[in-house]
Design brief:
By secondary structure, this protein is mainly alpha-helical. The protein folds into 2 domains: 155 residues, Arc Repressor Mutant, subunit A, CATH 1.10.10; 53 residues, no CATH class. It has 8 helices and 5 strands; from the N terminus they run H-E-H-H-E-E-H-H-H-H-E-E-H. The strands form 2 sheets. A 3-stranded antiparallel β-sheet has the order 1-3-2. A hairpin with an 8-residue loop joins strand 2 and strand 3. The radius of gyration is 27 Å and the shape is elongated. The relative contact order is 0.11.
Length: 228
């Protein structure tokens, strides 16, 4: 059995993710029909990015995945409607915990450990966040090929995000670059921007003080006592 890392298209990853997800969340209707699979691919919740997959596109993708042993087809109990199930766990030799994390990453894009724990709850229940993070670490260091990568922490974020590698290397959003001599704090604001904000605030305070003095002067000229 070959456990080498496959290179998938985004649609192939979406199809496999849907098959694994529905196996766990709606087992009574699994394996899936083509129509059910298309509906799962086009969900507007728990999906990133949102896709608009046609039945023809899904069928071509299923055929390609079947040729790589990642999908198995069956005629179902009725023998009339073709149904499809994933085989990715066997091909990549993945335990249930890794499969759950990989599935969420395929369906929702890069996630933090905290986000993954919430999203994985119906697929695999981790004892605690430490157990999930240990599993993520194993996914990034598999001897047969890493299936996940930890992305550089973005400014303003307290947690690293993780992404799957089944579609190839991940292009993380470029971090902000500060001008020479500047630094970027944990909120993503440069020292230059902080200085500019302080200068603007001082200017506003000065204008407010000028307005206060003008009002005081007008009250004095009119001989009207100012109400406190």
């Amino acid at each position: 059995m070959n456990d080498a890392l496959p290179t998938l298209s985004p649609l192939e990853a979406r199809v496999l993710g849907v098959l694994v997800e529905k196996q766990q969340t709606v087992p009574d209707t699994y394996p899936l029909t083509l129509n059910s699979l298309v509906a799962g691919c086009n969900q507007k919740t728990s999906r990133d990015p949102i896709m608009r997959v046609t039945a023809a596109e899904a069928q071509m993708t299923l055929d390609a995945l079947r040729g790589r042993s990642l999908v198995i087809e069956s005629s179902g109990a009725s023998g009339r409607v073709m149904r499809y199930e994933h085989n990715i766990a066997k091909v990549l030799r993945l335990p249930s915990a890794m499969l759950a994390l990989l599935t969420v990453l395929m369906l929702r894009g890069p996630q933090t450990p905290g986000e993954l724990r919430t999203a994985c709850d119906r697929l695999h229940r981790f004892a605690d966040l430490s157990a999930l993070e240990a599993c993520l670490e194993d996914m990034t260091t598999r001897s047969s090929g890493a299936i996940a990568v930890r992305l550089a922490r973005q400014p303003g974020s307290r947690e690293h995000r993780y992404a799957h590698l089944l579609c190839g290397a991940v292009q993380a959003p470029a971090a902000r670059v500060a001008a020479a001599g500047e630094a970027i704090d944990d909120t993503g604001v440069t020292t230059g921007e902080i200085a500019a904000l302080k200068a603007n605030l001082a200017q506003v305070r000065g204008e407010v003080e000028q307005l206060r003095q003008l009002v005081e002067h007008l009250y004095a000229e009119l001989g009207v006592a100012r109400r406190s």
